[in-house]
Amino acid sequence: MIWQTYQLDNKTLKANEPITLWKTENGIIEISKGTLAKPIMLDDQRKGYVFHGQSKLLLDTIVETEKGAVGKPVEKEMTEPFLMLGDTETIQEHLSTADKQDLEIAGYENEQQLTARAKELCDRFFRRTSVCGHGTFGWNHGFIFAFPNNANKLDVLIAKDTNLIYRATDRVFLSNKGKAILKTPGEVIIAHSGRSFVVKRSCCV
After folding, report:
1. How many helices (H) and strands (E) does the chain have?
2. I need a labelling partner for 93 at 20 to 30 A (CA). Which of 27, 33, 67, 203 fits?
3. Domain range holding 98?
């Protein structure tokens, strides 16, 4: 993925109702009514959005081992802009054109301020496309989300069918068809077919 081939649409949209962007047995991402959406375009087609509004991320990153559950779930109430690439068709029908009042509620004086902030987020994301193998994962057949965190970096969630990759500052979690790997600064936990083992780590994720 090369950012120079993408562009932000001039239009600013808003959610007409609460929208579930992604949902599986592993987690859910939801945006609230009124959330602003700036479309990300490629060859005149929408390939994703930068969203800004009250949003929620719930993700099960717990690994079951013979000695019990290891890890903790991700629960984030998001108020900063975040990025989504993936299927936009089901989302489009729940969006409409935003007006000046919608922008003001989100803290923007005008549309240019939102566009600048969305572009800054896209610039940061596309500069680090090697993270989690974006280029080989086939994002156009699944979803990629990028969320700013308190360390001024991006947490990345990639989901495709039963595959899930989540990379944050404090953990890396991979899951697929009963297999799970959780990497933390202190250890690596691998679980598969009811068996698991732990490898202690001396370096950070």
Report:
1. 4, 19
2. 27
3. 3-168
